[in-house]
Write a structure and sequence with these properties.
Layout (H helix, E strand, L loop, with lengths): L1 E5 L2 E5 L6 E4 L2 E5 L12 E5 L2 E4 L5 H11 L4 H5 L1 E6 L2 E6 L21 H10 L7 H9 L52 E7 L22 E4 L17 E3 L8 E2 L3 E2 L5
Parallel strand pairs: 9-12
Antiparallel strand pairs: 1-2, 3-6, 4-5, 6-13, 7-8, 9-10, 10-11
Length: 265
């Protein structure tokens, strides 16, 4: 741990938690001209340095959180959650994250967690959910203007988990199965959608701040990014693709990862 004095304050520089990678401060072009209207206009954004989980949060990690805190998820409180089977979504009574967290799936991303559940985990871990800008900067892996984390080459099954058939148990893949992006992040796209901190607004890019934007002050839906195992169309796997979901939703194709920034005291 290093310390430095600045204007009467002590700046404490803490090492990042294990399992995270450093994303350098810098500017990038956020959005896309080739996508849907909510991705426009392309605009330059500067993001301060931060660290991000190398992988989505796994069943093992979420289980450790629940064991330590006795936390009860939104799906458990509601007594039901969304299942995707036979190509259709329907609410299944008694379904929650534990149903898909068997011992052989310890290293799979946790699913059936709401935005509120993700925030609770992040707070317990001393982290936060990423802003949409942090997520996109990290997902790009240092590649300027590329469509996907690996470049402009269309997705293939060797790149990420997508286009999988629905089943009683979500066909997610264990984390770290595929090559990481340029920053060392795994499963940035595919496998599971990932919650972001921001409220979603389709027109936000028109007046977004140019430094560390954190989304609208209010809204109905939260941002989700990255695509998932049941995504069929490759455009949803693009790093600029934006999607929204109600924060109380618990779906079999939605998980999350966290970020961490040094704090001053």
């Amino acid at each position: 741990m290093a310390t430095s004095a600045s204007e009467g304050r002590i700046l404490v520089l803490l090492p990042p938690p294990t399992g995270m990678v450093q994303i350098p401060a810098g500017s990038f072009l956020m959005g896309s001209c080739d996508g849907s209207d909510p991705e426009r206009p392309v605009h330059e954004v500067f993001v301060e340095e931060f660290c991000m989980d190398a992988t989505p949060v796994t069943n093992r990690e979420f289980g450790q959180f629940v064991k330590a805190t006795e936390y009860v998820t939104d799906a458990e409180l509601a007594g039901r959650a969304w299942e995707f089977n036979g190509g259709e979504y329907f609410r299944r009574a008694g379904l929650c994250w534990k149903a898909y967290a068997s011992a052989d799936r310890d290293d799979h991303p946790v699913v059936l967690v709401s935005w509120h559940d993700a925030v609770a985990f992040a707070n317990w871990a001393g982290k936060q959910l990423p802003t949409e800008a942090q997520w996109e900067r990290a997902a790009r892996g240092g590649l300027a203007g590329a469509l996907y984390p690996w470049g402009d080459e269309p997705p293939k099954r060797e790149k990420c988990t997508y286009g999988s058939r629905s089943s009683a148990v979500p066909p997610t893949a264990p984390v770290r199965c595929f090559t990481p992006n340029g920053y060392g992040l795994y499963d940035v796209v595919g496998n599971v959608w990932q919650w972001c901190a921001d409220w979603f607004s389709p027109g936000y890019y028109h007046d977004s701040p140019r430094q560390d934007p954190s989304g609208p002050a209010s809204g109905i839906h939260r941002v989700r990014r990255g695509g998932a195992w049941n995504v069929i169309h490759p455009f949803r796997l693009r790093v600029a693709n934006r999607a929204a979901l109600h924060p109380s939703s618990c779906a079999p194709n939605v998980g999350f990862r966290c970020v961490w920034t040094a704090r001053s005291v």
